[in-house]
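Weekly modeling sync, notes
Attendees: S.R. (lead), two postdocs, one rotation student

Agenda item 3: backlog of single-chain predictions. S.R. asked that every request posted to the team notebook include the full sequence so nobody has to chase files. The rotation student volunteered to paste the first one in as an example of the format we agreed on. Action items at the bottom.

Example entry:
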Amino acid sequence: MQGDLVQDLYLKELRAYKPTPIKPSDSEGHVQKFSAPQAPHSPDEGDIAQDLKAYENQQVELEGQATTGEAAAPEESWFEEEDWDEDGEHAAGSH
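Predicted structure, as returned to the notebook:
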């Protein structure tokens, strides 16, 4: 019986609840006004052709190659070879 009393009170209050109507001015102060961003300016078309030609004529630099007038740097080997016995085991004094 007690559960029915609580349920009846809840349903009575739920039916009596009337939400406040939404006004168009309710969002003021909570939402920023929208303003469209400025259009970006396009680059000058004449400079693009010159820049493209300069890019095509540019000398390609590859790592490990010496440029003109410089001596080539010796290539370093980062790989360490380990000493192995004839049996396929590590040599005794390697580590």
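Discussion: group reviewed the output briefly. The helical segments are 2-16, 45-57.
Action items: rotation student to repeat for the remaining queue; S.R. to check formatting next week.
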